[in-house]
Each structure stands twice: as structure tokens, then as C-alpha cells.
């Protein structure tokens, strides 16, 4: 159970509390944070929550759940941000590869078109040369090799013979040139055809690369969109969970305020009981002193008056109220969710619900019933001990056995439970001096 007011002596611990709070809040990371592994982030958050267990042991389940859900979501954000960055980088790379593939394909197609045009020109030239050669062949066949002799016999004079012979040589040169051109053009046609085949193969390869690059770019775009959607979803969840956490924080503060008010009532009630018991003790002591004085005046000797024994310097007046193990001691705690110091005003004994609870010392049951945030509660006054009014409280019980009136040490008070502001089966045991909570170890 927690009390709201921190003692001034723990003010120096605020810095340590702030450090713990900042450590727990460190699950929220910016988009520019270094690469983070999701599993490591989750483990880190769970470790921090486990370390803060003592500070959260009396916190409502709703607040703890909201806090854990928010921390878990926050731990996923860095990995989601890294996934978006990686996906967008892959998308940019795939788009660049796609653009390069499209450019390569355009060049390949242009080269192929030029080769096709070249091949068409070569074929046209070859056809013309073949036609010329065919004409020469036809003429040669018709002349049947007598062309030169006819030129000589038909010449009227030597000059005409020389002219006709020169003309015949020119014709032969033209024929020979046409044949040479025919051979060259045929070879060029073969080479251009081979080149065109190679270019077509390159174009097909470029087409396949373009299709692959386009598919990769499409997949990368889809992956980037999915990663962005996941991040947006986490951000949206974080906003909703933050709102839920704030709602639970407010509810928790109200519950703690109610508990503090209940604790204040107990303090006032026990202080009044202690004051009355002290008054009675002093009255009894005064009466005893007066009786002793009268006895002495009547010659009855010099006996010392009866007084309370001096307070001892060690504990041991109280017995352990439960067989459970100690899950939390008395002391100041920094609440990592509500961000303030508060007093854990007793000692917690963890045990299964239904485990017996016993009176720590003889006394008088001054309260037995519902105690608000304390759940089912019994308060026992043990009278004036060591100069103070000592009382013990037994809280969160599943069932109360002890009723009002005297009770012996070790008598059954009730059974361990989890009623009131409690997160699990345990006994919250408080020791109060004049109504004020003190460390039970001082008296046990």
C-alpha cells in the first residue's frame, strides 16, 4: 500500500528517481536512431518493467497493462522506422535500376533500327549490282566472245581501231568493278545480317532486364508502402495507448488519493486511541504513585512506584503475521508511471490467497471490516509500548475472522487475499506509532 507524502530526507533521491523514470521512458526513440533489433527492444522493456516491480506492485492492473502496452509499442517503432528507411532505399535503387534498364533498352532498339536500315540499303545496292552484272553476262553470252574481234575487223582505220579498243577496255573495267562490288556487297550483307542478329539478341536481353527491373521496382514500392503503413499503424496505436495511459493515470491518482484519505483516517483514529491510552497510563501511574506515597506516610516502607519498563533498544515485540515470503519492504518508492515519490507504508508478505494471517501481538481489535483501498482490513491496538501507542494493520484479506475486542498473540485474524487496491494475493502489514506508519522491522 502506498502513501502519497514523501519525507524530506528522501529529497536527495529524486535525482535517482528521475534517472529511473528516464530509463523507463527510453523505449521511445526518434526516427534517426540507430538500427534496433525488435526482439532486443522487447527484452529490454520487459527487463526494465521487471526491475520496476517493487515500484509497481500496488498499481492497478489497468494502469500497468496500459503502460506495458505503450512501452511494447514504443519498442517496435525504431525497427519499423528502420524498415521504412530500408524499403525506401531499396525502392530508390530499384527505380534507378529500372530507369537504367529502360535507357539500355532504348539504345538497343535504336541500334537495331539502324542495323535494319543498313541491311535494307545493302540489300538494295546488292540488287542493283546483281542487275548490272546480269546485264553484262547477258551481253557476253550474246557476243559469245567475239566482241573484241568484231571491234578490230569493223574499224575503218587505225585510229578508229584504237578508240574501239580503248572503249572495250573501259567496258571490261566496268564489268570487273561491278563484279568486285558484287562480292563486297555480298560480304557486307552477311556481316550486317550477323550484326543485326546480335543486336536483336541484345535487345531481347535488355527487354528481359527491363521487365525484371520493373518487377523489382514494383515489389520495392509495395514493400515500402507496407513498411510505411506498419509504421503509421504503430504511431496511431502509440497515440491511442498514450491517451489510454493518461486515462488510467488519472484513475490511479484518484484511487491513491482515496487510499491516502483512508490512511489519514486511520492515523487520526489511532492517534486518538494512543492519546487516550497514554492518558489512562498516566492516570494509573499517578494513582499508583499517590497510593505509594500514602503507604510511606503510614510507615509502610519505601517501595518504588510501579512504572512501565524502559523501552528496549531492539525489536522482537511483534511476531511475524504470516508465513509468506517478504515481497516488498517499508520505504520510499519512485513511481515510474505517475512520476512521483510515495511511501510504501508497510511490509508485504506474498502468499497464496486463503493463507492464514495471525495477530502479531496481544491487543484490542479496534477496526474490522472494509477499508476502502486497503480492502478487507483489521486494525489491532497494542497499547502503549516503549512510550508510543503501537498498532498493527492487516490488509487486502480475502476474509476477516477477528471481530472487535481483545485478541491474543497468534490468534487467527483472517486470510490472505487481494481485495482493495491490490494486484495479487498478499498481506500488506503495517506498524503504526501513534497512528504514523513506521518500518515493521523496528518491532519484529
From TrEMBL:
<feature type="signal peptide">
    <location>
        <begin position="1"/>
        <end position="27"/>
    </location>
</feature>
<feature type="domain" description="M23ase beta-sheet core">
    <location>
        <begin position="343"/>
        <end position="440"/>
    </location>
</feature>
<dbReference type="Pfam" id="PF01551">
    <property type="entry name" value="Peptidase_M23"/>
</dbReference>
<keyword id="KW-0175">Coiled coil</keyword>
<feature type="coiled-coil region">
    <location>
        <begin position="242"/>
        <end position="276"/>
    </location>
</feature>
<protein>
    <submittedName>
        <fullName>M23 family metallopeptidase</fullName>
    </submittedName>
</protein>
<feature type="coiled-coil region">
    <location>
        <begin position="35"/>
        <end position="104"/>
    </location>
</feature>
<dbReference type="InterPro" id="IPR050570">
    <property type="entry name" value="Cell_wall_metabolism_enzyme"/>
</dbReference>
<dbReference type="InterPro" id="IPR011055">
    <property type="entry name" value="Dup_hybrid_motif"/>
</dbReference>
<keyword id="KW-0732">Signal</keyword>
<dbReference type="InterPro" id="IPR016047">
    <property type="entry name" value="M23ase_b-sheet_dom"/>
</dbReference>
<feature type="region of interest" description="Disordered">
    <location>
        <begin position="285"/>
        <end position="318"/>
    </location>
</feature>
<feature type="compositionally biased region" description="Low complexity">
    <location>
        <begin position="285"/>
        <end position="297"/>
    </location>
</feature>
Amino acid at each position: 500500500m502506498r502513501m502519497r507524502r514523501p519525507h524530506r530526507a528522501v529529497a536527495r533521491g529524486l535525482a535517482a528517481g528521475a534517472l529511473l523514470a528516464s530509463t523507463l521512458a527510453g523505449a521511445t526513440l526518434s526516427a534517426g536512431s540507430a538500427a534496433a533489433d525488435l526482439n532486443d527492444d522487447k527484452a529490454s522493456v520487459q527487463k526494465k518493467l521487471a526491475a520496476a516491480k517493487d515500484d509497481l506492485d500496488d498499481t492497478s492492473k489497468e494502469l500497468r497493462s496500459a503502460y506495458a502496452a505503450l512501452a511494447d509499442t514504443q519498442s517496435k517503432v525504431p525497427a519499423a522506422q528502420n524498415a521504412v528507411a530500408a524499403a525506401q532505399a531499396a525502392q530508390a535503387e530499384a527505380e534507378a535500376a529500372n530507369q537504367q534498364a529502360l535507357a539500355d533498352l532504348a539504345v538497343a532498339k535504336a541500334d537495331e533500327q539502324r542495323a535494319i536500315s543498313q541491311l535494307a540499303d545493302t540489300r538494295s545496292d546488292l540488287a542493283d549490282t546483281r542487275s548490272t552484272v546480269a546485264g553484262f553476262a547477258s551481253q557476253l553470252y550474246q557476243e559469245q566472245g567475239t566482241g573484241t574481234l568484231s571491234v578490230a575487223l569493223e574499224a575503218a582505220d587505225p585510229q578508229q581501231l584504237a578508240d574501239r579498243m580503248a572503249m572495250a577496255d573501259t567496258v571490261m573495267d566496268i564489268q570487273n568493278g561491278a563484279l568486285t562490288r558484287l562480292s563486297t556487297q555480298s560480304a557486307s550483307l552477311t556481316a550486317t545480317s550477323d550484326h543485326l542478329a546480335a543486336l536483336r539478341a541484345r535487345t531481347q536481353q535488355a527487354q528481359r532486364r527491363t521487365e525484371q527491373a520493373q518487377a523489382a521496382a514494383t515489389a520495392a514500392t509495395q514493400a515500402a508502402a507496407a513498411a510505411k503503413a506498419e509504421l503509421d499503424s504503430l504511431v496511431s496505436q502509440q497515440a491511442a495507448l498514450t491517451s489510454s495511459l493518461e486515462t488510467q493515470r488519472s484513475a490511479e491518482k484518484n484511487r491513491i488519493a482515496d487510499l491516502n484519505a483512508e490512511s489519514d483516517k486511520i492515523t487520526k483514529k489511532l492517534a486518538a486511541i494512543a492519546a487516550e491510552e497514554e492518558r489512562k497510563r498516566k492516570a494509573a501511574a499517578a494513582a499508583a504513585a499517590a497510593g505509594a506515597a500514602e503507604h510511606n506516610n503510614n510507615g509502610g516502607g519505601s517501595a518504588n512506584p510501579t512504572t512501565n519498563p524502559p523501552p528496549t533498544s531492539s525489536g522482537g515485540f511483534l511476531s511475524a503475521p504470516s508465513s509468506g515470503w517478504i515481497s516488498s519492504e517499508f520505504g520510499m518508492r519512485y513511481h515510474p508511471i505517475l512520476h512521483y515519490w510515495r511511501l510504501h507504508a508497510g511490509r508485504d508478505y506474498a502468499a497464496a490467497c486463503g493463507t492464514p494471517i495471525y495477530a502479531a501481538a496481544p491487543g484490542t481489535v479496534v477496526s474490522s471490516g472494509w477499508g476502502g483501498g486497503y480492502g478487507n482490513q483489521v486494525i489491532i491496538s497494542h497499547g502503549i509500548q516503549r512510550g508510543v501507542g503501537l498498532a498493527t494493520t492487516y490488509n487486502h484479506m480475502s476474509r476477516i475472522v477477528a471481530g472487535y475486542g481483545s485478541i491474543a498473540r497468534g490468534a487467527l485474524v483472517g486470510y490472505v487475499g487481494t481485495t482493495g487496491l491490490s494486484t495479487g494475493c498478499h498481506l500488506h502489514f503495517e506498524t503504526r506509532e501513534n497512528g504514523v506508519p513506521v518500518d515493521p522491522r523496528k518491532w519484529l
